[in-house]
Amino acid sequence: MLKPPFIVAEISGNHKQSLKRAYKLVDAAARAGADAIKLQTFKPEEMTLNINSGEFVLKNKSINGSWRNKTLYEVFKIAQTPWKWHEKIFKRAKKKGLKYFSSPFDEEAVEFLEKLKVPIYKIASAENIHFPLIKKVVKTKKPIIISTGMMNIKELDEVVSYVKKLGCKNITLLKCTTEYPSPAQDSNVLLIPFLKRRYKCNIGLSDHTLGIGASIAAISHGATIIEKHLTLKRNDGAIDSFFSLEPDEFKLLVNESKIAFKSLGKVKLDISKSEKKYQKYRRSIYVVKDIKKGESFTKFNIKIIRPGLGMHPKFYDQLIGKKSKRDIKKGTAMKNFFVKFK
Could you read off the pLDDT of 76-122 as tens digits, one per residue? Predict the structure, then answer.
């Protein structure tokens, strides 16, 4: 049985190194109707080297301005959620009725999160080739969500096979395009049913596009999880704000996701209950000019009009030229006993 999509608010580094702001993001997620909030658990020194040259500097012109020309270490330093905040943020989420989990970026982070009893683990796109990390997560026996950003089909086959061989049965893959923001045309949500058939598991979308269109499209193709970044203001200078949803937009995502899911319905060949009352307002054949007994039906005295209480329009051509069996007044719904068909 299909279930409504699980909507995750990714807080990432949009707290701007303020616990108070992190609380505001949790509260905003709750007000918007999200199902869960997610953090990222790492230490900058475990992510990269603190080197200010060469490949350790983000110089590519296509990289967004808030990241460009910073070192990898600087970006991770800004984006880090201090570990001492995790428990406080999780407690805030629980108080607000939200589920909570995180993306660990190394084995130490998994051990830390285990102490906080997180119920789910998410493997970020940049870590989906980090097999020792994945093995550590699978050993927790918790459900695992894996983002597929930057993976080709061979790599995805390999990691899914690896996870299943380790004994993990509760796997969800998130179709993901690793670009910030990502162009809608690169979302390729048509992959969702393909991935579901290929890997026999739940499939969702980690959506980095601006807006909610890609997420709604994903739901129509069977996405069971939607993950979007949340910020308080898109222009507030937070590390990921430039491609994140503001609270009102996130609320719209939640509401439209519910509508999109309900609209899926089921495969049936009958009209819905809600539209049955309108059937009588379809077209049917009516007498539009007084007709005498024995008079022929013509295009001038019968027409296909609304409402739908007369004969079906498919009989119109058969009626033309036939003679009336009785007097009929203008405005009378045509009935089959008014005429004799040979």
Answer: 999 999 999 999 999 999 999 999 999 999 999 999 999 999 999 99
Q: What is the pTM (predicted TM-score) of this model?
A: 0.88
What residue numbers bound the domain in which 99 lies? Answer: 6-43+80-264
CATH code for the domain in which residue 233 is found? 3.20.20.70
Q: Specify whether 244 is located in the same domain as 293.
A: no
Domain endpoint, select from 264, 283, 310: 264
Q: How many independent structural domains does the chain possess?
A: 2
**Cβ contacts of 232 within 8 Å, gap of 6 or more:** 14, 21, 24, 25, 28, 238, 246, 247
